[in-house]
Design brief:
With about 375 residues, the protein is of the alpha/beta class. The chain contains 10 helices and 21 strands. Strands 1, 2, 3, 4, 5, 19, 20 and 21 form an 8-stranded mixed beta sheet that branches. It has an 8-stranded parallel beta sheet with strand order 6-9-10-11-12-13-14-15. Strands 16-17-18 form a 3-stranded antiparallel beta sheet, with no helix packed on it. The two termini are about 15 Å apart.
Amino acid sequence: MVRATRVVDADGSRADGWVLVVGDTIHAVGSGPEAPAADEVVDLGDAVLTPGFVDLHGHGGAGAAYEDDSFADALAMHRSHGTTRSVLSLVANAVSSLAASLARVRAAMDDDPLVLGAHLEGPFLSPHNKGAHNESFLRSPTAADVDALLAAGSGVLRQITIAPELPGALDAIRRFVAAGVTVGVGHTVCTYDQARAAFDAGATLLTHAFNAMPGIHHRAPGPISAAVADDRVTLELILDGVHVHPVVADTLFRAAPGRVALVTDAMGAAGSADGSYTLGSLAVTVAGGIAHVAGTDTIAGSTLTQDAALRNAVALTGRSLPEAVAALTSVPAAALGFGDRLGRLAPGFAADLVALSPALEVQRVWGAGRALR
């Protein structure tokens, strides 16, 4: 059993709370001095206890990328910052190379239940809003490409980002969704109507809202407005104070309550020093914790961790702690179809727990009932 002065999830906050864990699952939750008998009691004192964080979109950390042969250090670093479940994002590449990366993610999943699968951020992206993706690998989806990625990604491919204005994109969206893959709209120059068509075809995510897409214009509302207007859609947000201004982030939270998922979009420099790195095949320079494609002003992912995103949500956008916690836990879990087992402190849910100091600094982490920090 784990006890804390405050227990917080999407359902609110309770004082003097406790969570009873049996194996890898939460068995009971309550508050006050009366609690079921437990073999061991971990008293966290004045800590805040939350569900483990779920990151839908991250490319690596601790000097490693999820395309690398080994990325255990990246996972360990993010877990030390409270991320207990991760989707491993892969940048645009040749289909054959993506298939090899998916095989490595499959091997990681076989050994590690905290890895939820892979996210293909490409190759079906617009060359006119490519961000930190190598344009030579960008292409419109063909039936053969979709077949190859679905075959290589069987049981591994969790989500994919697609620019819906590309030829063949809507058919590709339908096929991925039918195969159980969550589709995000992103790296796009699409119109409001094109985004709506993608959502009607089954896309349910907006990949890092505001970044690598048209902004909101009063006569051309674009994909952000289409996502806000559609209750089926979850909107990713990189809340590092660099990608999106805090006032704009606050506006998004107000416009789409309960549908904003905080993601890191972290690359290899997360948890590491400034310097030179790579993102896929592109050289990246990191200075002051901000990553750019070398020699350009194009942002190349982030060095964000999810605990920092939580603190930013509270301090920079004025979110209540339950709302900020939900954006890191229940909202992303539900976006992937795991809303009945991940992201809440409730009986039957995974025993993924994060203990935070009153200043929201990570103190302890458990994933599937196992101590990670």
